[in-house]
Structure prediction request, 437 residues.
Amino acid sequence: MSKKSEPIQSVKGTRDLLPAETPLWQRVEEEARKVFEAYSFREIRTPVLEQTALFARSVGSDTDIVTKEMYTFEDRDSESLTLRPEATASVVRAYIEHALYNQGGVHKLYYFGPMFRRERPQKGRYRQFYQIGAEVLGSDHPAIDAEVLEMLVLLLERLGLVEFKLLINSVGCAKCRPEYLKILRQAIEGVRARLCEDCQRRATTNPLRVLDCKVEADQPIIEKLPTILDHLCPECRQHFDSVTLDLKQRGVAYEIVPRLVRGLDYYTRTTFEITSGLLGAQNALLGGGRYDGLSEMLGGPPAPGFGFAIGQDRLVLTLEATGTLKPAQPLAVYIAWMGDTAREPSLLLARELRRQGIGTEISYHQIKLKKAMGVASKLQAPYAIIIGENEVSSGNYQVKDMRSGEQTSVRAGEIAGFLQEKLREPLQAGNDPAGQP
Ligand code: HAM
Prediction:
């Protein structure tokens, strides 16, 4: 007898999304698509694999992502490749590679897809996670920042999310940030010995990240450090004031957090995060900002940009916690047939209903009435149709409402219309029957 082999498990930090979960993921994607397209964004799909240099040059060679978290390997021809840890760099690479800038105007692009970071897995933090993101390339106008933030808030509201906060800051530009960093470095030097070990290291490598430290004991010290908002150049100050004024005019609520710095180096001026209290430690639902020099860093022409990425895993977790977004029940009707003559008309009916976009399931083999009802209930089909020899000869089928138990005799050719009508009626209780186009 052969030895039973050990089952193979999924890779740590990756997950299978089973059919019980995917409807919510699909709803989020559908809603995002609708909202983005209404703001005239168009979809872009870029590869999951990129040259390693792309991220080193954009995200930054001193960042946690690049130094510790990337899945990088040498390909068979010795080229260094990386599974993308984020997609902004890829979108800008594609914009340059295909010379989209030659078409003029601004480019509004959105994307969905998996990203990879080798972080310590915990609730809301995975090694393969999913982002829904958007980027606007080709202008530094502050109205773009405000419009994109308005779009994001609309999307979250559409999804039924209420408990979230938009936190916003400016991290300055290539002109004012070096000046500020000098001042910050000096200030940190005075308190360095009292800071945590990580901060002592960051003080040299990336002093801005000190502001982002989560260690409790460091907080009173960090509170007193100078903030970039007090050291913006007049152009950055004006840009930031225009963004916040525009947000007010659009009725988008925000909170200015002068310590908000992000973990990627390409940001200039506006940076932001939306957090949700429902998420616990990993409370950033999404993040983004402006990156006006990124295109040049990647060898392209000047092409200011602004964008964000939503952590889809975290968004779905919050929606599950609020329970506001009920996934559609895709199955509308279960057809059970009895007797050989009933098989063919049943198959044709199922095909017709499915053609009309009505979620239909049909028994593969003959089934007894009682068992058929059990299957229909288990599948949570709101309607069942029983087709036996009598029904075939009369041409009238019994359509059973599984919730009320009520049966209606409907002519075969009218069943699709009858169900369409019924499925449009509001439900008294339970879930949305859907299966509707
Ligand atoms: P990020 O802040 O690194 O920004 O990631 C955006 C969002 O992705 C986070 O707020 C979080 O919800 C989610 N996320 C990040 N890491 C993980 C993880 N390990 N597990 C689960 N979710 C995670 C960016 O990626 C930028 N590209 C955003 C951007 C677009 N900036 C401008 N345009």
